[in-house]
Model the fold of this input.
Amino acid sequence: MIPAPNPLRGEAALVVGGITCVLRPTFENLVLAESELGSLFALVERAAQGGLTLTEMTALLWHCLPAQGRPERVAVGQAVLAMGLVEAIGPVRTVLAQVLQGET
Done:
């Protein structure tokens, strides 16, 4: 059984291939995302200006999935497209809010 996401820890859910996955923006996950995407603060600014790309959204969400049992990145991208960019910004916003707010 997959645990429910805890919004107090900045977690969100993402359905990939019919399986609900919990996004966990841990320090390690965010460091890996930042090494690929560049500054997370710059990413937040691009998101606020509506300039976040599909590639960036997919990479950020993929890095925030637990490494064990993580679906392939292309499956995460397909999940983002299936839900639509407007709906997909919800989990992205949750992760980015955690970056800005830190642990509560």
Remarks:
- The two ends are 26 Å apart (CA to CA).
- The chain has one domain: 9-101.
- The longest helix spans residues 85-101.
- The mean pLDDT is 89.
